[in-house]
Amino acid sequence: MDSSQNTAGTPVSGGGNGMIISQSSDASPVDSTATASVNASTPAEDSKQNLNQVINSIQKTLGILHQLYLTVSSFNVASQLPLLQRLNNLVLELDNMSKLAEKCNIQVPMEVLNLIDDGKNPDEFTRDVLNNCIAKNQITKGKTDAFKSLRGHLLEELEQAFPDEVEAYRNVRAASAAEAKRFAQAQSTLPNGDVKVKTEI
After folding, report:
1. Residue 115: closest CA among 105, 104, 128, 99
2. pLDDT tens digits, one per residue of 158-175
3. Is residue 150 over pLDDT 90?
4. Residue pLDDT, tens place only, 33-48
5. What is the number of other CB atoms lying within 10 angstroms of the CB of residue 10?
6. Does the pLDDT of residue 91 top 80, yes or no?
7. What domain of life (predicted)?
């Protein structure tokens, strides 16, 4: 049944398992590495391209493993040649995957790997990180609000005891805030002279 897939010049006999061999799964992994050096681009694009190549290699390896499973589960004498070819393709693809992985510099948290080993969804790690960030953000916001409240109470008490000094302090604060605002607006100016943020009159 696999004779219809003999389009690449490689003899493929019937596997005896009723399975169709896809040309992309049995093709040599050298083809995927040949396309890696075709386009020269920025480092970010190169990193993304390398990652996509690793992902494609992983998917291709999974396809070969699935084919091996089907071949072994219904093995007969006619399946000997396809079995050897797929084993060779698996070794070549694993070697290709190892070479492609050397080009990728990606840090994967150990927690993600532990979740995968436990059979859990790795998205749980992202969810936990977001929940922890939200909780820490609420704690920080509470501390900020507490300091703002303390500052307000201190100013009220100081204004009653030292009204002149508090008035001078507020004038200094207002002048400093205006200067910081002008500096921020100057930083938001585009190279062509346009302004990102509309200035207040």
Report:
1. 128
2. 989 998 998 999 899 999
3. yes
4. 444 444 446 777 887 8
5. 13
6. yes
7. Eukaryota
User: Pick from 63, 50, 38: which is nearest to 97 by CA?
Assistant: 50
Beta-bridge partner residues of 189: 195
Copy the structure tokens of residue 22.
């896809």
At residue 193, the pLDDT reads 56
SS3 195: strand
- pTM of the prediction? 0.41
CA distance to 47, 110, 186, per residue, from 195 (Å): 34, 45, 8
Tallying the residues shown for the chain, one arrives at: 201
Contact 125, 116 (CB under 8 A): no
Q: Which two tokens stand for residue 87?
A: 């084993």
Is residue 27 within 8 Å of 8, Cβ to Cβ?
yes
| Contact (Cβ atoms closer than 8 angstroms) between residue 173 and residue 166 | no
Structure tokens at 160: 């009653």
Kindly state the tokens that stand for 65. Answer: 């493993």
